[in-house]
Every structure is written in structure tokens, then in C-alpha cells.
């Protein structure tokens, strides 16, 4: 907003008045007017005789005898004038001729283009195709938004679970948890987020899957990986339309993306459009407390979109909608798990029942140990070990009960969540150092991780 810089400017603005919807200066000159000489007066308003010079009436010329030399000079001047006039006429004729030739050339070129277009249309009609029909989309080609939506509606499903809980008044109550998933095989395997079916998995409740046509199935939970927020369901169906997976390693910031899902659990099969905003964001969700690598999108996603697909412009799934920034007033910050990571996990869950290659340590940690306990007992913050599994890699490394793990690899540990998150940065078979606090001193041990079987 413009603000005046001094009092004189303020007073000048106060002299402005609104007249007929237009601002005018106090002196009567409109802002919209075209400025002219300040002393100009229109001719039809002038009442004072003009003060410009008017020459007197010319007198009839008096014939005089011209000398020979003067006559020759006048003749020469006349000849020059005649030549100039003739030159102008000839030059004008020449330019007119060139212009006419140019116009004829342009008209001929236009006619040739029209004939060529007509020939192309005739050839297309002979092949049984319309000259204006959309080009068929081949694999990897960009779809229109409408084409992609029609495809997605055959691949995306709604997921609901009925959860019973005890309310504030001690009475049993129930509510439906809604989310999204998508079909990954024609015989009924479905991929979604773990947090969409978490309560049902923990409480042995039914998970309902709803297709676009309203058909409802009760799904079985094939498996899930909590710390990567991925789950696989199975419904008893055949002939379903599975998604096509893209390569999430090849996406780039600025790529066009589409999210299809069930926002708020009731606006089923909604599509939003956006772009990839950033890559390799480490996002910690409330469900796991472990940072997961995701990519960021600005397509609108809300509660209920979780577990739904993120499509690229070719209609290939490149991610799973998993989280959004929850602060009030913040928009356009959604996050998705790269599909390459999710597919690897899903394949293991389907074929093995667990995710292979996960590091396993073999210790149980007391999650009650916090800064208050540490301060009271005069011990450092860390993960307090209350049990070591016999024969585990921790047992072999020399970790003991009542040890406080304060460092794993290069990462400082201040509690259970830190230890869990650090552990997921390693794979089975990796070797690193673990530092524990024991009997008033720090001890560094070497550990080679086992493979988790669940």
C-alpha cells in the first residue's frame, strides 16, 4: 500500500474529492485527463480575439521584363520540379508493382498450405481416423487428467475399520476409521499405510474394502511393517485392475503428480493435482516415532487420503500418500513414501510374511526411563536395557542388563525412540559400535546386527 512521505503530500491528497466516481484534483483537472499546455483554451470557449499574426491580402503582381539570365534560371528550376514529380510518379509505380507481387506471393503460399492440410485430412479419413482425434496414449506417455482419473477409479479402493473403545464416561463406543488403498494384483492384493489399519490389527477387527462400484469385501491383513508405515491386505476377488508402478528413483522436483483417494473418509474418489515439491524428506509420524524417507508434494491431501496412490503424468504410481503437515493454516505440504521402497516391503510381506534385511539387536528397553529418572539416579540419558535376548547379537557383543545405551554408530541415544530410529538406519549384517554406560563408566562394544523376523 502506498503511503505519503511528508505533510505537503498529505495535504495535496486531502484536496482530492470524489466526483462521479472519479478522483479529481482540487484545481479541477482530472487525473485521467491528457495534459496539455497550461495556457491552452479550446477554440469554442475563447472570447478574446486571437493574438497571432495575420498577413495582409496579397497585391496583384506587376509584370516586369525578365532579363535573359533570370529567365534561364526560372526555366532550370521548373525543369527540376518536373523531374522530381516524374521521379516520384515512376518510383511510386515501381513500389506499387513490388507490393502487388508480394501480396500475390503470400496468397499463393496460403493456398498451398490450405491444399496440404486438406490432403492430410483426406488421408486420415481414408484410414478411418478423425483428423482432430486425440492421439492414442502409449505406455509411458502422458495421460490427460480425465483419462488418469477414469483409470484410477478402477484401481483405488476405500478402507474402513470399525473400532470399539471406552469413552470418557466409561462406556463402550465405536467409530469408523477411513482411509485409502490401491490394487496391486488382479487377484486382490491391496497396498495401504499401516496406520490406516493399525487399530484393527491390534484389536482383531474387520477391515472393509470398498470398490468404485460399491462392492464391499472383508479383507485379511497379510502383513505390515510398522516403522515404514506399509501394510498389505488381501480380498477374495478376481479380475481386478492393478496399478502400474513407476520408478520413484527417477522423479524430480517440479514433476506433475495426481493424488486420488477418500479425503475426510466421505469424499470418495477425489483427485487433486500438484507437483513434486522436494525429495528425501525425513518425516516422523505420530504412529511410529521413526523418521521415514518421503518425497514432498503440493497436491491437496487430507485425513482419509492416507494409503492412496500418487500418480505421475503417465498414470504410474510413484508413491503412497502418508502424511501432511498438521499445523493449522498450513497448506500444500503433503508427503508420500516412494513406491520403490513400498513395493520392496510389500513383496517381502507377501512372500515371506516379514520384511527381510531389517537389523535386529536383541534387547528390551524400559521406556519409562527418562530425564527425571536419570537426574534422580545421577545417570546419563539413554535407552535403559532391562533384558538381553540370549544368543542375540547384543548378547554376543557384551551388552548386559541395566546397561544404558548412549550411542549407536555415530548417533547419540537419549531414549527408546532414538534407539529404534537409529536401528532402522542399519541392515542385517551391518557392523558398528555401541556405547553403553555401566557402573559409572562408558564402554564401547562392537556389534553385528541380526535379521529381524517380524
Concise summary:
The chain is an alpha+beta fold and 454 residues long. 26% of the residues lie in helices and 30% in strands.
Outline the secondary-structure elements.
Layout (H helix, E strand, L loop, with lengths): L6 H8 L2 E3 L2 E3 L43 H59 L18 H9 L2 E11 L5 E12 L5 E4 L1 H10 L3 E4 L5 E10 L4 E5 L21 E6 L8 E15 L6 E7 L11 E4 L4 E8 L9 E5 H13 L7 E2 L2 E4 L4 H7 L5 E6 L4 H5 L6 E5 L2 E2 L3 H8 L7 E8 L2 E8 L1 E2 L3
Antiparallel strand pairs: 1-2, 3-4, 3-6, 4-5, 5-8, 6-7, 7-8, 9-10, 9-12, 10-11, 11-14, 12-13, 13-14, 15-22, 16-17, 17-18, 18-19, 18-20, 20-21
β-strand amount = 25-35%
Count of DSSP-assigned helices: 8
Shape from CA axes? globular
- Could you state the order of secondary-structure elements as H and E? HEEHHEEEHEEEEEEEEEHEEHEHEEHEEE
pLDDT under 50 segments (min length 5)? Answer: 1-67, 89-96, 128-139
Average of pLDDT: 76
Task: Note down, in words, how this protein is organized.
- Strands 3-4-5-8-7-6 form a six-stranded antiparallel β-barrel.
- The protein is built from eight helices and 22 strands.
- The protein has 454 residues and is of the alpha+beta class.
- 28% of the residues are buried.
- It is globular.
- The protein starts with 6 loop residues before the first helix and ends with a strand.
- β6 and β7 form a beta hairpin.
